[in-house]
Amino acid sequence: MKKIVLLLIVFAGLGAFVYFYEIKGGEERQAAQELEESLLRVTDEEIDALIVQRPGAEPIELRRVEDLWQITAPIQAEVDRFVVDALARDVANARRLRTLEDVSGQMADFGLEEPRLTLTMQAGDRTETVKVGAQDYTGNQMYVQLEGSDEVLITNRNFFTSADKELKEWRSKSVLEFDQDAAQVVEVVRPEGLLRLEREGEQWKLVQPVQDLADESAVSSLLSTVRYARVVEFVEEEAAPESYPKYGLDRPRFELRVKAAGRDEWRTLQLGGNHKKDELYARDTARRTVFSVRDTIVDNFEKDVGSFRDKKIVKVRQDELDRFLLTKGDQVVEVRREGDGFVIAQPESEKGAATAPYRFWYPTTDIKFEELEARPSPEGDPRFQDPAVRLELTTRAGETRVYEFAEHEGAQLARKLEDGRTGRISLADFNKLKGLEAASLKTPTP
Q1: Residue 19 φ then ψ, to 5°
Q2: For residue 89, what is the enclosing H or E element?
């Protein structure tokens, strides 16, 4: 027995040795070797600043400020983080593919007397400057030289391609930076008045100019349009307030304000006059730069209030449903939950027959308002005195919700009885409800 225990201890020790030395240690040795073979022997996470100097242009300084990249010279501006991250990654991944020694007097042959580009990298206390010369005969590699070294190195071209950009290519083209998922309050100031939306839990609500549930897709479209809109042209870098009138930004045509949950400050985009045929002047109020955007950005701003109101009539999930009761005159169709499925409870002729949700539930929940009325329907509304269809839903929690459908002066109407929410629906949807029959709900037997 002692021998078996001893063998198990030995095998466990060998396993630990293999893992820590051969596997984990091998990974660490591989990483160390790759770092040694890299051009600047640095990881992209260690890089604090990158300064790109192109012939005839001012140096472009890119620095990490509180873990975020920013342009700090020749202007102060936000960066396109994907472009800067790509450069930092390519700088870290650049390899010393070959080393050329005894090359004094040959710098012109390698394009290093007048470099195509000079890049300075700062990482902690380290500063390294690389001169980038001509490409080699393959076209995929470049001759480079580290400042203070007599050697010429050959490295991959990616490093040069990522760095060789004009100032405008480093800049963020986002018109307004905000976290769409964290947005809590949205306001749109427009000629017809203020549109205000507030998120409560997962549901957006319209607060002004009317109070109602908001159409989630309309709110998402509004925010996404701005979040992913891009600057067409930077017009004036440091625009003073006195210059705003010439851009129509002293009295903006539209203004979008977004406030995140738990934050007091607003992120605000202002849209002014026409810049060019298809462009508008704009500014993010957190910056002094005036820029232009495509005028299609206002399409969502110009939508009428009704477009932002939730058009869905029945807002009960199928998994919440316990009882479905449809009344048409003296005809009654009742469906009840039984275990994990549903069965017909009325009429008596179909009682006990199994039914599938797609036969009664989705035709009902697919119906939407085409146009909502501005005010709730009052109790005793004569238009619903004798509804053509009455739908009563009971949830598994015991809540009951009632919907009525009627025809009035050639229009098909629907309302939710609890809050009076009323509007017009299509004739096709109205007829779909009227056409629901118990016999058609039965699940066919094999």
Answers
A1: -70, -50
A2: helix 81-93
